[in-house]
Amino acid sequence: MALKYALYPGCAAKGATPELYQSTMAIIGRLGIEVVELTAASCCGAGVVAEADPDVALALNARTFAQAEQLGLDVMTICGTCQGVMGAANKRLKTEPGLRERINRVLEPAGMTYRGTVQVKHLLWIVVREVGLQRLGEQVRVSMEDFRIAPFYGCYILRPSWDLGFDDPENPTSLEKVIRAVGGEPVAYAGRTKCCGFPIILEKEAIAVAMAGTNMKEAKDGGADFMVTPCPLCHMSLDIYQDRAGKAVNTQLNLPILHL
Fold it and tell me: pTM for this one?
C-alpha cells in the first residue's frame, strides 16, 4: 500500500532549483510514495514574513494546511526551511488558545477553515521512518560505495527540537543512515548542523558566503567527494555561491551538492 501525501515542494524547488523537484518526482514512486501536489498553496514565508507580520505568516501556512486537510492528507515537503517554518506555524495553530480561530477568520472570505488535523513531514523523515532504509537500499541502481558523502542538515530541519522532534539537533543521524543505505560513507565534520548563510545572503553577503565556505571547506578537508542536504535554500547557498564561498576561505572547493 502506497504512502500518500499532499506535496508541498516549496518555492525554491519549483523556481530556482527545479532539478530538485524533478529528481524527487522521479524517485518517490519507486519508494511507494504517492502525492497530490498542492498547486494552489502559498509560500511558507521562509521565516522572513513572520518577522514582518506573524499573523500573515500564520494565515499563509494555515491556508496550505486547509488545502491538505480538504484532501484528507498530511503534508510532505522537500524543503528543510519549509519544514521548520510550517512545523512551527502548525504547532502554534494547534496549541495556542484562540489562535487558530483568529487565523480562520482571515481565511473565511476564501471559504477555507483549518481544523488542526494535518501533520507536516519532510521527505527525509518519511524515507527513514515510513519507507524504511531497507527498501531505499533495494532501489539503488548505482552504488555509492566508492564515495565519501558529507551530510549537511542546515538549521530549520533540526531546530527547535521541541517543535520538530525528529532528530537530535546536536547529533543527528538521519542523513547518515540514508547515506549508508545507498552504499556511501558519511563524512563526520563540524559544519554539518550549522547555518548555510542563506538567511542573511541579501543583507550580509560577505558573511553569508564565508559561512557557506567554512562549512564546505570542513567537509572537503574531511575527505568528502560531495555533500547532500535536505534544503533547497542550503543547496543554493552551497552551490550557486560556491565560487565566492571558496574565495572567502581561500580554497578551491569544487564540491558537488546533491539534494534529498
Answer: 0.95
